Amino acid sequence: MSKSLFQEFKSVSSKEWKQKIQVDLKGADYNDSLIWKTDDGIDVKPFYHADEFETHPNISNSKASNWKISQNIDVVEVSEANTLAKDAIKKGAEHLIFNIKNEDINLQELISGIDIPIHINSEKLSLSLLEKISSVKNSTKVSFNNDVIGNLGKTGNWFYNLKEDHIILEESVKQHNQLYINLSHYQNGGANNVQQLAYALAHINEYLNHFENKSISVNKLEVIFNVAIGSNYFFEITKIRALRLLWSTLSETYKANPNCVITATPSKRNKTIYDYNVNMLRTTTECMSAILGGASMICNQPYNNLFQESTEFGERISRNQLLILKKESYFDAVNNPSDGSFYIESLTTQLSEKALDLFKNIEANGGFLQQLKEGTIQRKIKESAAKEQSDFNEGKITLLGTNKHPNLADKMKNTLEKEPFLKIEKRKTLIEPIIQKRLSEDMEIKRLKEE
Predict the structure, then answer these.
(1) Nearest to residue 100, comparing CAs of 69, 129, 71?
(2) Does pTM top 0.85 for this prediction?
């Protein structure tokens, strides 16, 4: 055949496709029958076509071949955590997250013999912790959580107070040229994708405004976004892509580094204690979304961590899920695999535009910190969460083994090692915290009582 296959057939325009579909609908309304309207305010069409794009979409500023397998380690005893970390590295971990409760920890001992990048999450940010991080940064690449506004939204309080927290924040940026933005509690609290993206922009914009007023340079600032990934496969892919696009746009205003690091972990919101093995299926597709969306590091969630203390088996399975995706499914073989899909490109554009509009609204009404203090952000997230909870209760959202095909012989009362439910503690807070609650909690509590 001398001619190209594509030259053998006449191209069909999107208008012609739509006309053909309209004929097949036999009088039914095209928009009502085939266009899916999401809670994000996005209209999803039945097909997408090249002639709907004036120009070819830009190439994504990320490389799927570079994503790293991350391992989460809760530090109770330093030498034990160090041993667990080295074992995780031997078994495939390429990045470590240490969750520490006490900033007085011996950081040198904790990272001894570790030569892969690490991240430090501390329950309290302090100047002494910054000094310890400075002392070990030549040993290995270290990042840390200096998100004081994220802590305020999550807990309802500053680490110390507004002034002292921002002094420590400023010092951390001057010393380490790094800013961490935690977005996971927005998703786990029930915020929709447009809200998560808009809050990400408004959240970091508070910092950039503050640094500008303090004449702190951000042109080489490394920005790290931590996101939670839900089960809406294609929308989660586009959420990460849109986040990079939006940050690139905002960074121009402040002449900041347009590149960013994105760490991703599966959502807690759709995980269950009954039929808990299904959690492995959920986390697998969520990790796939993160990879295809362009996340830099992915830290999987063990299938049993809702109700059991950390187990070697659970951690191994969660890590192996990522190893299978990378080593056997070749999810690191193609860069930017979602580029060029008209569906994903269109979703990315729509999510970005709607998030940008909401961001502008937040800025026009006092900014993110002001709306947190007024409770506006919390109220909007609760409204979104209530709608999602209602859809779950009515069966419009399915969690297999919980509200669909439950195994009524499954007993969990004697298996619970830790509290898997939202626990309200009576304590004084500066603002109302963003409440994180799983969709299945009420149903699970009822089942436990009936066992």
Answers:
(1) 129
(2) yes
**Could you tell me which of 212, 115, 197, 123 has the C-alpha nearest to residue 368?**
197
Rama region for 155: left / alpha / beta (φ>0; ψ in -120 to 50; rest) = alpha
CA distance 45 to 322: 32
Q: Are strands 178-182 and 260-266 parallel, antiparallel or unpaired?
A: unpaired
Amino acid in position 224: I
Give the CA count within 13 Å in the CB-facing half-sphere of 20. 8
In the three-class reduction of DSSP (H, G, I as helix; E, B as strand; rest coil), residue 294 is classed as coil
Rounded to 10 deg, the angle between the 233-254 and 193-213 helix axes is: 20
Cβ proximity of 283 and 318 under 8 Å: yes
Output the CA–CA distances (angstroms, integers) from residue 369 to 164, 372, 378, 405, in the order listed.
16, 5, 12, 43
Using the structure block, give the residue that is written with the tokens 């007993």. 411
Under a CB-based contact definition with an 8 Å cutoff, are residues 172 and 130 in contact?
yes
Task: With cut-offs at 50, 70 and 90, classify the pLDDT of residue 1.
Answer: very low
Whole-number pLDDT of residue 358: 98
Tokens at 223, concatenated: 């920005």
Q: Is 36-66+145-451 CATH 2.60.120.560? A: no
Separation between Cα atoms, residue 144 and residue 222, nearest integer Å: 11
Q: How far is CA 112 from CA 115, 316, 382, in A?
A: 9, 22, 43
Residue identified by tokens 């470590």 is 96
Sequence spans of domains, the chain:
36-66+145-451
Which residue in 223, 187, 191, 194 sits closest to 207, CA to CA? 223
pLDDT digit string, tens, across residues 186-223: 999 999 999 999 999 999 999 999 999 999 999 999 99
